[in-house]
C-alpha cells in the first residue's frame, strides 16, 4: 500500500484481551479474559509442591510437566493410556496437580502420624536423642571457676613437687658420693692434679719432672687401676676409694737428702752405712685422697734420686784437690781439713724387711736443713734453665743451647770466651761452697763472741745482718770505749765470702 | 789480638820437620810454655761455570777456612773481597751449594803444629801440608792485649826478631791498609789465605838428603 502515512503506534495496557483470531475482514475475536476462578486455577497450576518440602529431589524440576508426570506415575497401571493422554495434554484439569500434591501430602502426614503413634508406645520403636555437647550450666559460674582454679593449681603443684624431688635426690646422692665415690669422678679429680694418658686399655700417668725441664732418665710412669677388692657384703670403709695408683717399685716409700757436717772424719769402715730409718709418714692434708699422698711421696723420692745422681756424677768427674768419696748412698767431701761434709740419700721403702732395723737416733743438729732445701732449689733452678728462653732457640729452627753459644760461631769466640759461657759450677761445688760459708760464719761468730767476752776494754759489739746471701754474710763490729762512745767511734764492717779467709773491709771515722 | 802470620823458610840442608824442631826449641828456651796444638785448614772452591754466563769471565775463587782457635766458627773469603764468619753448619751449606761452588781438586791445604804461650804472646808454629807432602812452615804470633793493629806492629816485629832472626817478615798488607781499625779474626784468616797461596805457587820444597 503506498502512501505511507505516519503510523500511529498505540500502546495498550496489558489488560487488553488476547486475540483469539483475526477475521478476514479485520475483525478480532477476543478471548474472554480469565475469570477469577480460571485465574486461580491457572495460578494453582503453577504451584510446585515439590519445592517447599525439599525431600524428593528428583522432582525438583519445578515445571508443570513434572507435576503432571508425577501425577501420572502415581496412577495405577490400568490408567496407562490415560497417563499417556495426560502427558500429552498437560492442561487437562488445572487442579489436578494441586489435587495430587495434596494427596501426597496427606499420605506423608498419615505416615508421620503412624510413626508417632508407634513411637509413643515405645514397644516397637523408640526415639533416641542425638548426642550433643554438654551445655555449660549457666546457673553456677562460681563453682566452675573454683574448680578450674583448683585443677590448675594442682597441676602447678605437681610440677614443683617433681622438681623438689629431683633436687633432694641429687643432694642425697652428693652426700652419698663423699663416702662412696664413683670411679670416673675420682679419675676426674686425679686428672686435675696429674698428667694422665690412655695407652690401650691402661691409664698411665707421669710423675717425673721431665715436663718441668729435668733430664733424669727415669720414666716416672704410674698406673691407675680400679679398686675392685670391695666386699659388698661388709660395710664400706670410711676411706674407701674406687681408684688406686700403682707406682714403680723403686719409688716406693719416702726419701730425703741428708746433709751434715762432722768435725772429725770417721773410720773408713763406717763409710757407706745405709741410713735406714723409720720415718713417720708425713701427715697428709686432711681431705686429700690417699693417692695424692702416695704420688707426692713417689715424686719426692724421684727428685731426691735425681739430686743424688747429679751430685755423685759431679763428685766423680770434677777434679779437685781432695777427691770426693762416693760410697753407696753417701758422698763425702772435705771442704776444710778436719771438716767433713757428708751428703746422703735416705730412702726407706715400705716393705716389712726394713722395719726390722731399730731406728737410729737422729739428733736434730745433724741435719743442715738449709743446705738440703738449697739442694732442692738448685736442682729446680737447673730444670728451669733447660726450659728458659735463653735455651729455647729463636728462631725455632736454630739448634738448642745457650743463646750466646749460638752466636759464638758467627762472632768467632775463642776458647776462653766459650769456656766462660758454659756453666762452670756444678751442684756439688755450689753446695760445698755453701757449706764452707756456713761453717766459716759460725766460726767467725764464735771467735768474735769469745773476743768480746774476753776483752773488757774497749768493748766489742757485733751486729749480724739478717739478710744474707748463700755465699756472703755481713756483720758490723762496733769497737767502743766506755764513756766515749759519742765522741769517737771506730767500727769495721766485714763481708765474708765462702773462701778460706774472710775478707775485711774496714771503715773508720 | 794483633796477629802476624809469616812464613819461615826452610833452613838449608834441613827438612821441614827439623826446622820446626829448631824453632820450637828456641821458643822453649825463651820460656814459652806449650799449650796444646792448633790447626788451620783451607779449602778452595770456584764459582761454577753455569753461573758465569757467556762472557767467559774467570770464576772467582772462594776459600773456606777453619781455625782451631775459634772452634765453633767457619770462615769464607774471596781473594780481595769480604770475609764471612759463620757457624760450623756452613760446611753443610756448602754441600748444598754444589751447583754454584765447585771444589777445586786437591786443593786442601792445612797447617798443624804446637801452640806456645809466652806471657801476652801466643806463638803457633806449624807445618804447612798439602796432601801428604809438607810444603813449608807457618809462624803466627799474636799479641793478646792490643786490638788496634797498627799500634802493636813494632812490638811484634821485635818479638819475632828474637827467635826468627833474619827471617823476620815485613809489614803485612793487612796492617798497611787500615790504621786505627780494630783487628779481628777475619784479618788473621786473610793472612793465612795469602800465606797458603804463596806456598802453593812455590815449588815443592826440595827433599834434603836425596843425594
Automatic annotation (TrEMBL), chain A:
<protein>
    <recommendedName>
        <fullName>Mediator of RNA polymerase II transcription subunit 17</fullName>
    </recommendedName>
</protein>
<keyword id="KW-0010">Activator</keyword>
<comment type="similarity">
    <text>Belongs to the Mediator complex subunit 17 family.</text>
</comment>
<dbReference type="Pfam" id="PF10156">
    <property type="entry name" value="Med17"/>
</dbReference>
<feature type="region of interest" description="Disordered">
    <location>
        <begin position="51"/>
        <end position="83"/>
    </location>
</feature>
<dbReference type="GO" id="GO:0016592">
    <property type="term" value="C:mediator complex"/>
</dbReference>
<keyword id="KW-0539">Nucleus</keyword>
<feature type="compositionally biased region" description="Low complexity">
    <location>
        <begin position="62"/>
        <end position="74"/>
    </location>
</feature>
<keyword id="KW-0804">Transcription</keyword>
<dbReference type="GO" id="GO:0006357">
    <property type="term" value="P:regulation of transcription by RNA polymerase II"/>
</dbReference>
<dbReference type="GO" id="GO:0070847">
    <property type="term" value="C:core mediator complex"/>
</dbReference>
<dbReference type="InterPro" id="IPR019313">
    <property type="entry name" value="Mediator_Med17"/>
</dbReference>
<comment type="function">
    <text>Component of the Mediator complex, a coactivator involved in the regulated transcription of nearly all RNA polymerase II-dependent genes. Mediator functions as a bridge to convey information from gene-specific regulatory proteins to the basal RNA polymerase II transcription machinery. Mediator is recruited to promoters by direct interactions with regulatory proteins and serves as a scaffold for the assembly of a functional preinitiation complex with RNA polymerase II and the general transcription factors.</text>
</comment>
<keyword id="KW-0805">Transcription regulation</keyword>
<comment type="subunit">
    <text>Component of the Mediator complex, which is composed of MED1, MED4, MED6, MED7, MED8, MED9, MED10, MED11, MED12, MED13, MED13L, MED14, MED15, MED16, MED17, MED18, MED19, MED20, MED21, MED22, MED23, MED24, MED25, MED26, MED27, MED29, MED30, MED31, CCNC, CDK8 and CDC2L6/CDK11. The MED12, MED13, CCNC and CDK8 subunits form a distinct module termed the CDK8 module. Mediator containing the CDK8 module is less active than Mediator lacking this module in supporting transcriptional activation.</text>
</comment>
<dbReference type="GO" id="GO:0003712">
    <property type="term" value="F:transcription coregulator activity"/>
</dbReference>
Automatic annotation (TrEMBL), chain B:
<dbReference type="InterPro" id="IPR013921">
    <property type="entry name" value="Mediator_Med20"/>
</dbReference>
<keyword id="KW-0804">Transcription</keyword>
<dbReference type="GO" id="GO:0016592">
    <property type="term" value="C:mediator complex"/>
</dbReference>
<dbReference type="GO" id="GO:0006357">
    <property type="term" value="P:regulation of transcription by RNA polymerase II"/>
</dbReference>
<keyword id="KW-0010">Activator</keyword>
<comment type="subunit">
    <text>Component of the Mediator complex, which is composed of MED1, MED4, MED6, MED7, MED8, MED9, MED10, MED11, MED12, MED13, MED13L, MED14, MED15, MED16, MED17, MED18, MED19, MED20, MED21, MED22, MED23, MED24, MED25, MED26, MED27, MED29, MED30, MED31, CCNC, CDK8 and CDC2L6/CDK11. The MED12, MED13, CCNC and CDK8 subunits form a distinct module termed the CDK8 module. Mediator containing the CDK8 module is less active than Mediator lacking this module in supporting transcriptional activation.</text>
</comment>
<keyword id="KW-0539">Nucleus</keyword>
<dbReference type="GO" id="GO:0003713">
    <property type="term" value="F:transcription coactivator activity"/>
</dbReference>
<comment type="function">
    <text>Component of the Mediator complex, a coactivator involved in the regulated transcription of nearly all RNA polymerase II-dependent genes. Mediator functions as a bridge to convey information from gene-specific regulatory proteins to the basal RNA polymerase II transcription machinery. Mediator is recruited to promoters by direct interactions with regulatory proteins and serves as a scaffold for the assembly of a functional preinitiation complex with RNA polymerase II and the general transcription factors.</text>
</comment>
<keyword id="KW-0805">Transcription regulation</keyword>
<comment type="similarity">
    <text>Belongs to the Mediator complex subunit 20 family.</text>
</comment>
<dbReference type="Pfam" id="PF08612">
    <property type="entry name" value="Med20"/>
</dbReference>
<protein>
    <recommendedName>
        <fullName>Mediator of RNA polymerase II transcription subunit 20</fullName>
    </recommendedName>
</protein>
Amino acid at each position: 500500500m503506498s502512501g505511507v502515512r505516519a503510523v500511529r503506534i498505540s500502546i495498550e495496557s496489558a489488560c487488553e484481551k488476547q486475540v483469539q483470531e483475526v477475521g478476514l475482514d479485520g475483525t478480532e475475536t477476543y478471548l474472554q479474559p480469565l475469570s477469577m476462578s480460571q485465574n486461580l486455577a491457572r495460578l494453582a497450576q503453577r504451584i510446585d509442591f515439590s519445592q517447599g518440602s525439599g525431600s524428593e529431589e528428583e522432582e525438583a524440576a519445578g515445571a508443570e510437566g513434572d507435576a503432571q508426570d508425577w501425577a501420572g506415575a502415581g496412577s495405577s497401571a490400568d490408567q496407562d493410556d490415560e497417563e499417556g493422554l495426560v502427558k500429552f495434554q498437560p492442561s487437562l484439569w488445572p487442579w489436578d496437580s494441586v489435587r495430587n500434591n495434596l494427596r501426597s501430602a496427606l499420605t506423608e502426614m498419615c505416615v508421620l502420624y503412624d510413626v508417632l503413634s508407634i513411637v509413643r508406645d515405645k514397644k516397637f520403636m523408640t526415639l533416641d536423642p542425638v548426642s550433643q555437647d554438654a551445655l555449660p550450666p549457666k546457673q553456677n559460674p562460681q563453682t566452675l571457676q573454683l574448680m578450674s582454679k583448683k585443677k590448675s593449681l594442682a597441676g602447678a603443684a605437681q610440677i614443683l613437687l617433681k622438681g623438689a624431688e629431683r633436687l633432694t635426690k641429687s643432694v642425697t646422692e652428693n652426700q652419698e658420693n663423699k663416702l662412696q665415690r664413683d670411679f670416673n669422678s675420682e679419675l676426674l679429680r686425679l686428672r686435675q692434679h696429674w698428667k694422665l694418658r690412655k695407652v690401650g686399655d691402661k691409664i698411665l700417668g707421669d710423675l717425673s719432672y721431665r715436663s718441668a725441664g729435668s733430664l733424669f732418665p727415669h720414666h716416672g710412669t704410674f698406673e691407675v687401676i680400679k679398686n675392685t677388692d670391695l666386699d659388698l657384703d661388709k660395710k664400706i670403709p670410711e676411706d674407701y676409694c674406687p681408684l688406686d695408683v700403682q707406682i714403680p717399685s723403686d719409688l716406693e716409700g719416702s726419701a730425703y737428702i741428708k746433709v751434715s757436717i762432722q768435725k772429725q772424719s770417721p773410720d773408713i769402715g763406717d763409710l757407706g752405712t745405709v741410713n735406714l730409718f723409720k720415718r713417720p709418714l708425713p701427715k697428709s692434708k686432711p681431705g686429700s685422697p690417699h693417692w695424692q699422698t702416695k704420688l707426692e711421696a713417689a715424686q719426692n723420692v724421684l727428685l731426691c734420686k735425681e739430686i743424688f745422681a747429679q751430685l755423685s756424677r759431679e763428685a766423680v768427674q770434677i777434679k779437685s784437690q781432695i777427691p770426693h768419696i762416693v760410697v753407696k748412698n753417701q758422698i763425702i767431701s772435705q771442704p776444710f781439713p778436719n771438716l767433713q761434709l757428708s751428703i746422703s740419700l735416705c730412702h726407706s721403702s715400705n716393705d716389712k724387711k726394713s722395719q726390722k732395723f731399730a731406728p737410729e737416733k737422729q739428733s736434730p743438729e745433724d741435719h743442715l736443713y738449709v743446705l738440703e732445701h738449697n739442694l732442692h732449689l738448685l736442682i729446680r733452678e737447673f730444670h728451669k734453665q733447660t726450659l728458659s728462653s735463653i735455651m729455647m732457640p729463636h728462631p725455632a729452627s736454630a739448634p738448642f743451647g745457650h743463646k750466646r753459644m749460638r752466636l759464638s760461631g758467627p762472632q768467632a769466640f775463642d776458647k776462653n770466651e766459650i769456656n766462660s759461657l758454659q756453666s762452670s759450677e756444678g751442684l756439688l761445688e755450689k753446695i760445698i761452697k755453701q757449706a764452707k760459708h756456713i761453717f766459716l760464719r759460725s766460726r767467725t761468730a764464735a771467735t768474735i763472741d769469745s773476743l768480746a767476752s774476753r776483752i773488757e776494754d774497749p768493748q766489742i759489739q757485733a751486729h749480724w745482718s739478717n739478710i744474707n746471701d748463700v755465699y756472703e754474710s755481713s756483720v758490723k763490729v762496733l769497737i767502743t770505749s766506755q764513756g766515749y762512745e759519742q765522741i769517737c767511734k771506730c767500727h769495721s764492717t766485714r763481708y765474708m765470702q765462702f773462701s778460706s779467709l774472710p775478707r775485711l773491709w774496714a771503715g773508720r771515722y | 789480638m794483633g796477629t802476624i802470620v809469616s812464613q819461615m823458610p826452610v833452613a838449608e840442608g834441613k827438612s821441614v820437620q827439623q826446622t820446626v824442631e829448631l824453632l820450637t826449641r828456641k821458643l822453649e828456651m825463651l820460656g814459652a810454655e806449650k799449650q796444646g796444638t792448633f790447626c788451620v785448614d783451607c779449602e778452595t772452591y770456584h764459582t761454577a761455570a753455569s753461573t758465569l754466563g757467556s762472557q767467559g769471565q774467570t770464576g772467582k775463587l772462594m776459600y773456606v777456612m777453619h781455625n782451631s782457635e775459634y772452634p765453633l766458627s767457619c770462615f769464607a773469603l774471596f781473594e780481595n773481597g769480604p770475609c764471612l764468619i759463620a757457624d760450623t753448619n756452613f760446611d753443610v751449606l756448602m754441600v748444598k751449594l754444589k751447583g754454584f761452588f765447585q771444589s777445586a781438586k786437591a786443593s786442601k791445604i792445612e797447617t798443624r803444629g804446637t801452640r806456645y804461650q809466652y806471657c801476652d804472646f801466643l806463638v803457633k808454629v806449624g807445618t804447612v801440608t798439602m796432601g801428604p807432602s809438607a810444603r813449608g812452615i807457618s809462624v803466627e804470633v799474636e799479641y793478646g792485649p792490643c786490638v788496634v793493629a797498627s799500634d802493636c806492629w813494632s812490638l811484634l816485629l821485635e818479638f819475632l826478631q828474637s827467635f826468627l832472626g833474619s827471617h823476620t817478615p815485613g809489614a803485612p798488607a793487612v796492617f798497611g791498609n787500615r790504621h786505627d781499625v780494630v783487628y779481628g779474626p777475619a784479618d788473621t784468616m786473610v793472612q793465612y789465605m795469602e800465606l797458603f797461596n804463596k806456598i802453593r805457587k812455590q815449588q815443592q820444597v826440595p827433599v834434603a838428603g836425596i843425594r
